[in-house]
């Protein structure tokens, strides 16, 4: 039997109640002969707080994508499950995410934008300082 694994991530780890939660990832098996992880085509089931959400199938590269409407505000655990098949062991992956209110997310995005602008301003000041110190 080949060992299997699921690697996955959210496109947005903090969606709002009106957004879709999107998960992308890979299903792989370990080839003992080549000592490497290889893509695996298979069916993956998705569960939110033990409630079945649906399924998707990974492609020949092992890649998959799945989306569902964000639940109400709160913290959640998503479980992705591969039941295995003939020579491939079953496996699962658990991911946690938080659903925010729109205003809360807007504040976080505004703070992130302001921090980025501040970093850019600091870089410009440093570059100007170096330029004027060197060419004066």
DSSP, total strands: 8
Query: How much helix is in the residues?
Result: 10-25%
Radius of gyration: 22 Å
Oligomeric status = single chain
What does this structure look like?
This protein has one helix spanning 102-134; strands at 4-10, 20-31, 36-39, 43-48, 51-57, 63-69, 74-82, 91-99. By secondary structure, it is an alpha+beta fold. Strands 1, 2, 3 and 6 form a four-stranded antiparallel beta sheet that branches. Strands 5-4-7-8 form a four-stranded antiparallel beta sheet, with no helix packed on it. A hairpin with a 2-residue loop joins strand 4 and strand 5. The longest helix is centred in the C-terminal third of the chain and has 33 residues, at 102-134.
Question: Key features?
Answer:
single chain; 136 residues; alpha+beta; 4-stranded antiparallel beta sheet; 24% helix; flat
Task: Summarize the helices and strands and which ones pair or pack.
Layout: E1 4-10, E2 20-31, E3 36-39, E4 43-48, E5 51-57, E6 63-69, E7 74-82, E8 91-99, H1 102-134
Antiparallel strand pairs: 1-2, 2-3, 2-6, 4-5, 4-7, 7-8
